[in-house]
Design brief:
By secondary structure, the chain is an alpha/beta fold. The chain folds into 4 domains: 86 residues, no CATH class; 62 residues; 168 residues, P-loop containing nucleotide triphosphate hydrolases (Rossmann fold, 3-Layer(aba) Sandwich); 197 residues, P-loop containing nucleotide triphosphate hydrolases (Rossmann fold, 3-Layer(aba) Sandwich). It has 22 helices and 24 strands. The strands form 4 sheets. An 8-stranded mixed β-sheet has the order 19-20-18-21-22-17-23-24, sandwiched between helices. A 7-stranded parallel β-sheet has the order 12-13-11-14-15-10-16. It starts with 6 loop residues before the first strand and ends with a strand.
């Protein structure tokens, strides 16, 4: 027994970590390399040694021996022998199957399988038997099935190491402007890790950590034309501004392909929704994808890859001959399709924990506070009689949150404050309360850009945003964010919203979440906070004072 250790490794491959233990930080720092967090209540966090987490670790160079040694070092009790065996067996599967070019036939690929037992098992597997033709050291398959085979093999527990050839793409000379900025060392390392690994995979960096710069470095290193896929029109505009400001590319070299202007350029920016539009007579039945797929791209960049919509997964299976770079602040997907990202984009190639970037000054120091608010008397009957689908809305629109918001605004009177919410009526009420503009999906592109510009310039110091503010909004001056409601228990959204205030700045940042006490919203908040725990953040809980008390009570 090691009383100095904070973790307990259990027989089902879960790992319990005592938050208040002196060894907590050490245990968490070890686990984030090869486990995923499942629960994060105040006192004990639960991690899981999942297959996908183990394979991502293996792809990043972690060996089974290193992993087992780390587990033993953080575990209070002896690690169960069968867990060590399962960890070694699962990690050993990484690389058993590898894809290679056929020596004479460009229309086919060779799937090498390095042990006979696995070859026999795959030959008997109905889900892949139809597209695999046995050969001496594995199987042959048609090139067009490259993505489908990787998806199918991952589902049955055999991740594929894809070493088959990639299209070079049309050449493009790009240089980063040394007079404009100097990339951080970790950004250089991320781009190098991606390129050196073969040009397919995912880079995980905090919002505000410079993922756009990593993409620019990758394009420059590869010297090829690139297609950049983003979450929306504002993101395209932001990418274009960054590229024109920080690279040698000129106005004609960076184009936006959207509903307003379908402009192709050596670096073309478009959205997932454009790519997924059906129609046309092309091979996939998606008109814009079929048009863009004919261009000589040497790299496809997936911004916010954790939000990749299902139709684009299917289309990405058609792009397996292109280099693919996924950028994200978190690999968590609320639909559980992280395996699709692994199979079709590639494994995690580089990851820097958010708190590491905070410690080095590359993102702001953040204080996270959950403010628990009682349900207003006027809403109690509505909540009690609401069905399960309506309860989150009633709790999210709790009028008592406006009093808490007013108190927070007074506490941060001189700060630059963003207020974000998922329910428009309460968001508009917050805008009226604090006299601030409200940007929603109904706000025109021109009005949005004006509000963002006014906030950056300091003409307004408070701004309310609906879910349109979750993605690719560049408001680096913001240092306080108040989340008045969220989308169920979305960890993705928690990551995106925290990222709105993480640009480096004196005095750090404060991230508030208003939660209606003793409702489903409190349960959802617990799920969202798993992201904070995964990144090493501690969060405090303030309980809004009952009538007769003057100050909030700090619970944790």
């Amino acid at each position: 027994m090691n009383a100095d250790a904070a973790a307990i490794v259990q027989g089902d491959r879960s790992v319990l970590v005592e938050v208040e233990h002196p060894g907590y930080e050490r245990a968490r720092d070890a686990l984030v390399r090869f486990a995923e967090i499942e629960k994060s209540p105040e006192h004990v966090h639960t991690y899981r040694l999942s297959d996908l987490a183990l394979w991502n670790a293996a792809a990043a160079g972690v060996t089974a021996d290193d992993l087992v040694t780390s587990l033993r070092g953080i575990s209070r009790f002896e690690v169960p022998a069968h867990v060590e065996h399962e960890v070694r067996e699962r990690m050993a599967r990484h690389g058993v199957c590898s894809l290679h070019d056929h020596p004479t036939d460009a229309a086919r690929l060779r799937l090498a399988v390095r042990d006979a037992f696995t070859r026999e098992r795959l030959a008997a597997e109905k889900r892949v038997a139809e597209i695999l033709q046995p050969c001496p050291d594995g199987f042959l398959l048609e090139t067009r099935h490259r993505g489908a085979v990787k998806q199918a093999l991952l589902r049955i527990g055999y991740p594929v190491d894809d070493r088959a050839g990639l299209v070079a793409g049309a050449p493009l000379e790009v240089a980063l402007r040394a007079d404009a900025f100097t990339p951080y060392a970790y950004q250089e390392q991320a781009a190098r890790a991606f390129v050196d690994a073969g040009g397919h995979g995912v880079v995980v960096l905090a919002c505000g950590g410079g993922k756009t710069i990593v993409a620019m470095l990758a394009i420059a290193r590869l010297g090829t034309r690139a297609l950049v896929l983003t979450t929306g029109r504002e993101a395209c505009s932001q990418w274009r501004r960054e590229m024109l400001a920080k690279t040698s590319l000129g106005e004609a070299d960076v184009g936006v392909y959207d509903t307003a202007a379908k402009r192709l350029a050596p670096v073309t920016l478009t959205t997932y929704s454009m790519l997924a539009q059906k129609g046309g007579g092309g091979p996939t039945g998606h008109r814009h994808f079929d048009r863009l797929a004919t261009e000589p791209w040497g790299l496809v960049v997936y911004d916010e890859v954790h939000l990749l919509p299902a139709p684009v997964f299917r289309l990405t299976a058609e792009l397996q001959a292109r280099r693919r770079l996924g950028l994200t602040a978190t690999l968590v997907r609320e639909d559980g399709r992280e395996g699709e990202v692994f199979a079709l984009i590639g494994p995690k190639r580089y990851d820097v924990p958010w708190r590491d970037l905070e410690a080095s000054g590359h993102v702001a120091t953040a204080t996270c506070i959950e403010v628990r608010v009682p349900l207003a008397g006027s809403s109690r009957m509505a909540y009690a009689t609401a069905d399960a689908r309506e309860q989150p809305r009633v709790a999210g629109e709790n009028p008592a949150k406006l009093d808490a918001l007013r108190s927070i605004a007074e506490r941060h009177a001189g700060d630059r404050v963003l207020v974000m919410g998922s329910y428009l009526d309460s968001l508009r009420a917050a805008g009226a309360l604090l006299g601030m503009p409200v940007v929603t999906g109904e706000t025109s592109h021109r009005e949005r850009e004006r509000a963002y510009a006014d906030f950056r310039a300091g003409k307004i110091r408070r701004l309310a945003l609906s879910r349109v503010g979750n993605f690719a909004i560049d408001l680096p001056e913001a240092n306080v964010l108040v989340q008045i409601s969220g989308t169920m228990g979305s960890r993705q959204e928690e990551a995106q919203r925290l990222g709105r205030v993480l640009r480096p700045k004196p005095g750090g940042a404060t991230f508030y979440t208003l939660v209606t006490r003793d409702t489903v919203e409190q349960d959802n908040a617990l799920h969202r906070q798993m992201f904070l725990a995964e990144q090493g953040y501690r969060y405090f809980i303030e309980d809004v004072a009952p009538p007769g008390e003057e100050e909030p009570r700090v619970l944790h």
